[in-house]
């Protein structure tokens, strides 16, 4: 597959790294030689120094016979124009990063498809969705719903109160049990567990279950004492914060702390129906946090553009008694540090956006792909075709590759966990976890 990535910025270089892992034919395109050199430093890819809106440059990159053209520069007008030109030249699929929520409406997306843009990516909206999903369950680090919650994946940090530590998983997760442990992050190692593995103190465990058993999972992991989130304090009033507040559940009250006075005025106009109180101040100021009720707040979300500031603010909030903290960490180098400090939920917009774009390179019918940064693992929702290899035998007889496990499936709208005796049918939505594996190798099971 030939892929052209226009924009050697954070998302573009992250995508190039992901696609290089799959040994794809990648060209990174940018009008800055300096940015391209930084991208080339640790990637074995071809680069072209040209504007993505240059017809000559697009022809030189081979847009006329590319399978996937991705425009992820900081300027949405450049991205839209580049995709229209690339499609007109012959690109099969095009993706444009945007920063206008209006363009994500169904009618607008249909219009953009007609003029040559296959898909639009709005990272701030994706990040806001992840933040709100996480806030709904204060005791969960990461949550992922399949088919509106028919299946639910939850990443949970295990503490001393967990009832199921140090027991072989074969005694906990049998065919008739209401959950499976599909992955474990233990210090710096990721484990796709077997029956002899066990959960240990301070593991990040990824559970797959169905909606009705979420309270049971909460009980056995010892998280019933976590208060549900009603009051949220957000540091940083950028686009992600606006989107998160405007789509927040009705029962949550929010306060946004923003250092820039002019931005505070803008926020009062951008927020729907007075959904949040806007405060001009520094979210690291303990006196201000105390005055604004941090001790009666269940969640603290740090969304400034500075990773160090966000990490420090979350640590401060934790010391003041907040159980649920969320930090925006855009610098990949800081993610492992944030995890070691037990920050809580980490949001990285470029990884979220890259996951959504990544699925477009797969030939199988894939509804969703997510990269779990904390576990260094991928989770994807595949729909197998009639006669595909995955449908020919029971799961135990398929000889699935090492590093891959099937978490569950949705059939006729109903979520089901998968055991060795399960036979997968064409048309099922199958949730697959994999660690240190080529996703293209896995998709061959489904086509």
TrEMBL record:
Pfam families: TrkA_C, TrkA_N. Keywords: Ion transport, NAD, Potassium, Potassium transport, Transport. GO terms for cellular component: plasma membrane. Residues 141-223, 367-447 form the RCK C-terminal domain. It comes from Leyella lascolaii. Residues 1-121, 229-358 form the RCK N-terminal domain. Signal peptide: none annotated. One of its GO terms (molecular function) is potassium ion transmembrane transporter activity. InterPro entries: K_uptake_TrkA, NAD(P)-bd_dom_sf, RCK_C, RCK_C_sf, RCK_N, Trk_Ktr_HKT_K-transport. The keyword NAD applies. This is Trk system potassium uptake protein TrkA.
